[in-house]
Design a protein that fits this description.
The complex is a heterodimer.
Chain A lengths: L2 H6 L4 E4 L2 H10 L6 H14 L11 E4 L6 H14 L5 H26 L4 H15 L9
Antiparallel strand pairs in A: 1-2
Chain B lengths: L1 E8 L8 E4 L8 E5 L6 H13 L21 H6 L2 E10 L5 E10 L15 E6 L2 E2 L5 H8 L10 E3 L12 H10 L2 H112 L2 H15 L7 H14 L13 H10 L7 H16 L1 H38 L3 H49 L2 H48 L6 E6 L5 E5 L4 E3 L7 H18 L6 E4 L7 H14 L4 E4 L7 H7 L3 E10 L2 E9 L2
Helix pairs in contact in B: 5-10, 5-11, 5-12, 6-9, 7-8, 12-13, 13-14, 14-15
The chains are: A mainly alpha, B alpha/beta.
C-alpha cells in the first residue's frame, strides 16, 4: 500500500456489485489473474464511456490491503484523482464503484456477445474517446 | 510352166553339144521329136529326167543297166579323154521367170569297153537372169517348184510302160498319184502340222515346266503371304497385348503413386499433428501471456489519458511553497544538517516551522506526479505493443492451427477412404511385375516376328519380281494357242483331204471314164473306170461287172489305153502345171487306139506336150491330124561316120 493510496483511501474495505460477473470472467474463464484487474478495467472503461451502475446494496467487500499489484493501486489512485472534484472522499469512492460496476457490466455484455474481450479494440477506441471525455473531467487542467 | 530349151553334150549319142528349142506357141503345145530306134530318142527323154532328178531320174528305165548314170556318158568322149556330162534345161515358169537347170557330172578318160569312171557327185546349178540362183538345196527346190520325183512318172513317161500304172498298185504309184492330184501336199501339210504339233508339244512341255516352276513359285508366294498375314496378325495381337499390359501398369502406377502421395500425406498428417500440438501449446502460452498483459488492460485503456496528462502543464509552485516543501521535508525526515551544513537546532526548527505553509496539495499536481511515476514504471506504450503482438501471434497461431486441422482432417478423410491400401498396393505391384515380364516376352516376340516379316517380305518381293518378269505363262498360252491352232488346222487338213479326195475322185473318175471311152476301140462295152481308196483302178463293164484293171487285157494296147486315160485324168486334175514328155507314145496300140490317142494328145496337157515317137510310129496322116497343135518337129539325125554322135535337126 503506497503512501498516496493510504492517504487517498481512507477506507480499507470496499463494497462491490456484480459478484456473478467476477466469478464468470475471472474465476471461470480466467481472463484475468485476479478480480482487481477486472475491476480496474471496468473502472477505467466506466469513466471513459461514462457508464455508471448505481447500486447501494453492494455486498461484496474487497480489502485494499489484499491488492498486491502496485499498478492496481496506482490506477485506483489515478482514477480517484481524476474524479476528485472537491467533493467528500466517500462520494468519490461511491462514484468510482458506480463506474467500476458500470464498466464491468459493459465488458460482460461484450463478452456475452463474442465470448471474448477484444481488449485491443477497446484500447484502439480509447484514444479518441479520451480526447472527448477528458474535457468533462474537472481535475485535469487542459 | 514350159520347157524352153534343152542343151546337152557327152550324153549318150549326143557327144557334141546339142541345143533343142522347145518353146511353143499359144494353141500349139506339141513338140514332135522323131528318131529311130537307138538313135537317141529315149536318151533325149532320159536327159530331161536326169537334169531334173539326177541318177534317180533314170530308175524308171525298163532295162536295169540303163538305170545307172555311167551307161549314159558318151563312150567316145570318155575314150578320148576326161570330160563331163552336161545337160541343161531352160524353163519358163507361169509367172514369167526363166531359170536354167544345169546338171553336170565329170568323167575320166575310160578305154572303150570299160565302165566309165564318173566323179562322185553331180554339179547341179540353177541360173536366173542375174546369174547363179543361190539356194541351199537345189534338188529340193526342183522337187518343190518344178516336179516331185514320184509325180514325174505321169508327166515324163514311156508310152510302152505306162500300163504298170494300172497294174496292181504299188506304194510308190499311189504316192505318185497323190502327189499329182495335190493330195500329197494336203497329206504332207497334215504331216507337217503333226510334226509341228509335236515340236510345239515339246515346246509347250518346256514352257509347262517353266510354268510349273512359276506355279511352284506362286504357291510359295501364297504360302509366304499366308505366313506374312498370320505373323502380322500375331504381331498386331502382341502389340495390342503389350498396350493393354502397359495400360494396366500405367493405371497401377497412377494408383501406386497416389498411394505414395497418401503415404506422404500420412507423414504430413503426423507432422501436422505435432505442429498443431505445438501450436496449441504455443497458443496456451500466448493466452497465458495475454492474460498477464490483459491484467494491465485498465492501465492500457487509461494510457491515452495518461499521455494527455503528461503533456498538460501544471501551475509551477511559488517561492513560499518551495520553502515550505523544503523545510517540511527536512523536518519530516528529521534531517540533522542543512544544505549549508549548519546544524538544525531548535531555533532553526522554529524558523523552519514558521515557514511551513498550511496549504493543500494541488490535486492535478498529485495526479501528474502519479501519472509520471506510473508511466515510467510500467511503460504502457510498450505494454500495448507487446499486447498487440501477443494478440496477433494468437490470431496467427489460431489461423495456423485451424489450417493445419483442416489439412489434418482432409488427410484423415483420404486415409479413411483408402483403408485397404497395403493389400491393394502389394497386389498392384505384383501385377505390374507380371505385366513387365509379359511385355518383355511380347517385345521379344514382336522383334522376332518383325525380323521374320522383313525376311518374308523381301522373299515375297523377290518372288513377285520373278513371277512378274516371267513370261512362261504367256509363252505357254501362246504355245497352247499354237497347238490348238495346229490341231484344228490339222483337223481341217484331214477333213479337207477326205473331202477333196472324195470330190476329186468322183470328177477324176468321170473324166477318166469319158477319156477311156474316147480312146478305147469298144466304148460300148464299158461303162466307167473306178478308182479305189488306194487308187487301184477298176473297170466297170456296161453289164455292171467290175474287175481290177490288171485283169483287164482284151489286147496288148488296151492296158495302155486305160493307163493313158488315167494319166490324162491326172494331167487334167493335177495341181502341177508341168509339160508332158512322152517317149514311144503309141507303142503297141492298134490302129483305132492309135488314132484316138493321137487325136487326144493335144488335150493331154494344158501347157506343153513333147512327144518322142519312132519314125514309123506316127504316119504323116497321124501328124497331119494334130499338125495345127504342133509348134516344132525335130529329127534325130545320126552321124553316119560316128555312131556315137546324133544331131538334132528341126524340120522347116
Amino acid at each position: 500500500m503506497t503512501e498516496l493510496a493510504s492517504k487517498l483511501f481512507q477506507f480499507t474495505r470496499f463494497k462491490r456489485g456484480l459478484d456473478t460477473v467476477y466469478e464468470i470472467l475471472v474465476d471461470q474463464e480466467k481472463l484475468f489473474t485476479n478480480q482487481w484487474n477486472l475491476l480496474t478495467l471496468g473502472l477505467v472503461y466506466g469513466i471513459l464511456y461514462d457508464k455508471k451502475l448505481e447500486n447501494k446494496n453492494r455486498k461484496g467487500i474487497i480489502e485494499i490491503t489484499s491488492i498486491s499489484d502496485r499498478h492496481i493501486q496506482d490506477i485506483l489512485c489515478i482514477c480517484y484523482l481524476i474524479l476528485d472534484d472537491g467533493r467528500p472522499p466517500k462520494e468519490i469512492y461511491e462514484l468510482m464503484w458506480d463506474y467500476a460496476d458500470g464498466g464491468v457490466q459493459e465488458i460482460y455484455g461484450m463478452y456475452n456477445e463474442t465470448k471474448n474481450i477484444d481488449i485491443a479494440n477497446i484500447i484502439r477506441d480509447a484514444e479518441k474517446r479520451w480526447n472527448e471525455r477528458v474535457h468533462s473531467l474537472h481535475n485535469i487542467n487542459l | 510352166m514350159k520347157f524352153l530349151q534343152l542343151e546337152l553334150s557327152n550324153w549318150s549319142v549326143f557327144r557334141e553339144n546339142q541345143i533343142i528349142d522347145l518353146s511353143t506357141e499359144d494353141g500349139k503345145p506339141i513338140i514332135l521329136i522323131y528318131g529311130d530306134n537307138d538313135k537317141g530318142k529315149t536318151s533325149l527323154f532320159y536327159s530331161i529326167r536326169y537334169v531334173l532328178f539326177g541318177e534317180n531320174g533314170l530308175k524308171s528305165h525298163p532295162k536295169p543297166n540303163y538305170r545307172e548314170l555311167k551307161e549314159w556318158a558318151n563312150y567316145h568322149s570318155a575314150a578320148a579323154g576326161d570330160g563331163e556330162i552336161h545337160v541343161e534345161l531352160k524353163i519358163q515358169f507361169d509367172d514369167g521367170n526363166i531359170k536354167r537347170i544345169q546338171r553336170k557330172r565329170k568323167f575320166e578318160q575310160t578305154p572303150t569297153g570299160q565302165a566309165i569312171d564318173l566323179s562322185q557327185k553331180d554339179e547341179l546349178t540353177i541360173f536366173d537372169e542375174k546369174g547363179i540362183f543361190q539356194i541351199n538345196d537345189v534338188q529340193k527346190w526342183i522337187y518343190k517348184n518344178i516336179l516331185p520325183f514320184d509325180a514325174s512318172q505321169f508327166f515324163l513317161f514311156d508310152g510302152e510302160v505306162i500300163q504298170k500304172y494300172t497294174d496292181k498298185q504299188e506304194q510308190y504309184v499311189r504316192e505318185a498319184i497323190e502327189q499329182v492330184l495335190g493330195l500329197s501336199e494336203l497329206k504332207n501339210a497334215e504331216e507337217d502340222l503333226m510334226r509341228l504339233n509335236e515340236i510345239l508339244g515339246d515346246e509347250r512341255n518346256k514352257k509347262l515346266r517353266l510354268v510349273t516352276k512359276d506355279e511352284k513359285t506362286q504357291r510359295e508366294l501364297v504360302d509366304l503371304e499366308n505366313s506374312i498375314s498370320e505373323t502380322k496378325e500375331l504381331t498386331d495381337n502382341a502389340e495390342i497385348q503389350k498396350k493393354i499390359a502397359l495400360d494396366v501398369i500405367e493405371s497401377n502406377n497412377k494408383i501406386i503413386k497416389q498411394y505414395a502421395e497418401l503415404r506422404q500425406q500420412k507423414d504430413h498428417q503426423d507432422e501436422l499433428r505435432d505442429k498443431i500440438a505445438n501450436n496449441n501449446k504455443l497458443l496456451q502460452d500466448l493466452e497465458n501471456k495475454l492474460k498477464t498483459k490483459r491484467d494491465f488492460s485498465g492501465l492500457l485503456v487509461l494510457n491515452p489519458l495518461l499521455k494527455t496528462i503528461l503533456k498538460t502543464e501544471e501551475t509551477p509552485p511559488s517561492h513560499q511553497q518551495w520553502e515550505s516543501k523544503c523545510v517540511s521535508y527536512l523536518l519530516d525526515n528529521k534531517i540533522e544538517k542543512c544544505l549549508c551544513n549548519s546544524y538544525i537546532d531548535d531555533n532553526i526548527k522554529k524558523i523552519y516551522e514558521s515557514k511551513m505553509l498550511d496549504i493543500r496539495d494541488n490535486p492535478f499536481s498529485i495526479l501528474k506526479r502519479l501519472v509520471e511515476d506510473t508511466f515510467s514504471s510500467y511503460r504502457p506504450d510498450g505494454l500495448e505493443v507487446e499486447l498487440n503482438q501477443i494478440i496477433n501471434n494468437i490470431s496467427d497461431t489460431e489461423v495456423q492451427i485451424n489450417t493445419d486441422k483442416e489439412a489434418f482432417d482432409e488427410i484423415s478423410k483420404t486415409i479413411q477412404n483408402n483403408k485397404n491400401v497395403g493389400d491393394d498396393l502389394h497386389q498392384r505391384e505384383k501385377t505390374n511385375n507380371e505385366k513387365m515380364k509379359e511385355i518383355g516376352r511380347l517385345e521379344e516376340h514382336i522383334i522376332l516376328n518383325k525380323k521374320r516379316l522383313d525376311h518374308w517380305r523381301s522373299q515375297h518381293n523377290t518372288l513377285s519380281n520373278k513371277i512378274s518378269s516371267s513370261t512362261a505363262d504367256k509363252e505357254l498360252k501362246r504355245a497352247n494357242d499354237s497347238i490348238d491352232f495346229v490341231r484344228s488346222t490339222s483337223g481341217v487338213f484331214g477333213h479337207a483331204f477326205n473331202e477333196y479326195f472324195k470330190t476329186r475322185k468322183e470328177e477324176l473318175e468321170k473324166y477318166i471314164s469319158s477319156t477311156f471311152k474316147k480312146l478305147t476301140n469298144a466304148p460300148e462295152k464299158y461303162k466307167s473306170i473306178k478308182i479305189g481308196e488306194t487308187f487301184e483302178i477298176h473297170i466297170e463293164r456296161t453289164n455292171g461287172d467290175i474287175f481290177p484293171s490288171h485283169n483287164y487285157s482284151p489286147s496288148s494296147g488296151a492296158g495302155q489305153i486305160v493307163a493313158m486315160s488315167v494319166i490324162a485324168g491326172f494331167n487334167k486334175f493335177t495341181t502341177r502345171q508341168c509339160p508332158s514328155v512322152i517317149d514311144t507314145p503309141l507303142g503297141r496300140l492298134d490302129l483305132i487306139h492309135r488314132e484316138n490317142v493321137i487325136d487326144f494328145y493335144p488335150l493331154l496337157n494344158n501347157s506343153q506336150v513333147i512327144i518322142l515317137p519312132q519314125k514309123g510310129e506316127m504316119s504323116d496322116t497321124d501328124v497331119e491330124a494334130i499338125m495345127e497343135n504342133v509348134s516344132a518337129i525335130y529329127d534325130l539325125v545320126p552321124n553316119p561316120s560316128d555312131p556315137n554322135q546324133t544331131f538334132v535337126r528341126r524340120r522347116r
